[in-house]
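Worked example 3. Consider a protein that binds flavin-adenine dinucleotide.
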Amino acid sequence: MLRPVLFWMAQSPRMRAWVTRSAVGRRVSRRFVAGETLEEGLEVARRLRDRGFLVTLAHLGEWVHTQEDARQAAQAIHRLIQSVGEAQVPAYVSVKLSHLGIHLSQNLAESLLQDLLQAASEQDMMLRIDMEESALVDPTLELFWRFHKRGVANLGLVLQAYLYRTEGDLRRLLPARVPIRLVKGAYKEPKTVAYPKKRDVDANFDRLARLLLEAAQAPQAPRLSTNGRRPPMVAIASHDEDRIAYAQETARRLNLPRDAMEFQFLYGIRRDLQERIRREGYPVRIYVPYGSEWYPYFMRRLAERPANLFFFLRHLFRK
Ligand SMILES: Cc1cc2nc3c(=O)[nH]c(=O)nc-3n(C[C@H](O)[C@H](O)[C@H](O)COP(=O)(O)OP(=O)(O)OC[C@H]3O[C@@H](n4cnc5c(N)ncnc54)[C@H](O)[C@@H]3O)c2cc1C
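Given these inputs, the predicted complex is written out as structure tokens:
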């Protein structure tokens, strides 16, 4: 019931202006977002590193309006890549192709990504393309394959278990041994492309996790690097305890070494679980977003758990 309202709010320029300008909106968003500046993002990354976590940093932004905006976004991400190197944090960087303007020009996004991959490679770091709306899945995979054919080895992907197509995509990607983050999927998708029922998404998540973990048994499958900037082939990214337990159990049955997979969580969500999985001895990476363009990201976090909306409203009316 509430999810459509939240997805509507996510698209509404008036809501966006209202929430991002209000002190309460900014304060509540801090539950999920490290801050508005690179330095705030790095500060959170350092704190997580000191507590034994790995990190992936994301400079927030998506669906830029002009090619100039895309170039500026790439410059900011470039600065982020260099700062991660200087700050000595075990982190790689996640990017969104709509932030690099793929919807405006494929060529521009490709050349911006090429430069970022080069900068990341100089820091011995992977870049991962976050997966966005289903309309961007084909362009994302096409771009990936073009880089792969040129021998680029530091580009990772995300696959979404809610899409019917994902098992086919995964089976085609497995021989390339590309690092994959498996997620359920965060966007509003029609039932022509995505499972509408949670239990079907969950069952698909487990099926895809098993395929990935089996493939990670191969000796050539990427392992977690010692600097933490190159992740292993499998990243299980979910706060769902049943999905995590299934992946752990499968990894145990397959006798997978601990550096063959990692668990990933979003900053600010289920901190108790993040800590527990880390204490169990698995590599745990936290996705740390920062930047002034936090509104769409924040709205997706509210839509995932409408109880968050009440948390937001409570703060709003307490003011
Ligand atoms: C590291 C990481 C990277 C991601 N990257 C992408 C991406 O590139 N593309 C994409 O489409 N999606 C991405 N996602 C989001 C993902 O698709 C899901 O929308 C999100 O993780 C919620 O699903 P879940 O697997 O946690 O399971 P759910 O069944 O939704 O949640 C399980 C439990 O986790 C807790 N929980 C989940 N979400 C929240 C929340 N927002 N607030 C508070 N508690 C919550 C609740 O306790 C809930 O019961 C990413 C997620 C993670 C962890």
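Take a moment to read the result before moving on. The pocket of flavin-adenine dinucleotide is lined by residues 130-131, 158, 160, 181, 183-187, 237-240, 264-266, 269-270, 287, 301, 304-305, 308 (CB under 6 Å). The longest helix spans residues 67-87.
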